[in-house]
Amino acid sequence: MKLVGLLFALGLALVANPSSAETLSVDLRPAAANAASPQMGDRLSFRTTIRNDGTAAVHGLIAWISLVQLDKGKEQPVDLEDWSAHKAVTAASLAPGQILETDWPMRLIQAGTYRVVVSAVSRGSAGLVVSPFADFTVRQKPVVESQRVLPVALGLPLLIAVAMLWRRRRR
Amino acid sequence: MSAARLIARKEAGELLLSLRGLSWLMAVAVALSVFGLLLVSNTELSLLDNAQVVYDMVAIVTALGGLLALVVGLDAVAGERERGSLVALLLTPASRDAILSGKLGGIAVAWAVMYALALPYLWAVGSTGQNLREAVTILAVLGSPVVLGFGFFGMALGARLATARTALLTGLIGLMISASPLLLGPSLRQSAIGRAFDVINPISAAVNAYDGVIIDSQPVLGQWPHALLAAAWLVLALWLARSGFRRVAR
């Protein structure tokens, strides 16, 4: 009876965690050229290594990058559309021991503290394989500079006002 | 000096040297300044928003340019008629086409001044330089026919309608309808009616080209379908102004 229960539990475990999900591993690391303290407008790159550690090939592999903002009160997933054109990678199959290396470049659009994670899934898997986290902070960069705007915004109307006064005086 | 050039010079002089013309320029400058100051006070802008503010500024310049050209165009016919100076002008030996060309030249000068006035503002808000040069170019290429078209449209209204007030009201309503894409969100513009309106609306053509070049970094030359619509609008408005002015001349 005990043996039947053990076999049943093992069967359930196999259905819940198919082998291909367990055989994939995803490693994520920032590129060496990344700035130590990046600011808005800079570009960062991350590199993933997806390895098939199992004994059978994995078919229909999809890996994608996710970015979340971690700032207090602004916790949210980030729409990558403006940050990166490279949001996913696919592979028809990954043989045992084979690795898939991918670079994930992105342009830093907004200041804040962020976390990057890459997730992978294959056709036969029911579970998700995720990479370790990579955190980074983007420094604020003034988008509209007051030193530029103020002289123009105040100076031009003033200049026209002077011209109007001059015309009025001449009349 | 030809009669057309003389009239254009007089029209331009009225804009640059008269208190009335300077007041119009002052109103435009204040509107652009208020927009610029609103941007400075916003500390939450992302890098993407820099392209967005340049796009917004270019769109505002186009709308204000259209308004200025419309008023200058209306004033060139309806204003002169109400001031009693149009008849005197028509009695001069200058041909009708020369007078019309001079008036059109005045509108072109008004837009050139407005464009020059907008350049420092664009430079000021486009601090990251993202597509700033392209924004200045697309404003000249697409904004000019659209704005000049509204100036010619103003002349046509001034010539055809009985009073300057009626012409001004009609012109303003037309401009507001045409400029509605600046106020409507993208979702509303994606409806069947919104898309149909975009096909015939010159300001939609300009705005879509601005969006493509400034925000999506598309090439300026790739905007030729929008430029074609803007050019068609210019030709139509010119034809309306010419036929309307000939009616006044008779």
Automatic annotation (TrEMBL), chain A:
Natural source organism: Enhydrobacter aerosaccus
Tell me where the transmembrane regions lie.
Answer: 149-166
Protein name in UniProt: Uncharacterized protein
The residues the entry assigns to the signal sequence are 1-21
Q: Which InterPro entries match?
A: Ig-like_fold
Provide the alphabetized UniProt keywords. Answer: Membrane, Signal, Transmembrane, Transmembrane helix
TrEMBL record, chain B:
Q: Which GO terms of the cellular component aspect does the record hold?
A: plasma membrane
Query: Which GO molecular function annotations are given, in alphabetical order?
Result: ABC-type transporter activity
- Keyword field contains Transmembrane: yes
Residue ranges spanning the membrane: these are 21-41, 53-77, 98-123, 135-159, 166-184, 224-241
Keyword terms of this UniProt record: Membrane, Transmembrane, Transmembrane helix
Reply yes or no: does the keyword Membrane apply: yes
> What is the recorded name of this protein?
ABC-2 type transport system permease protein
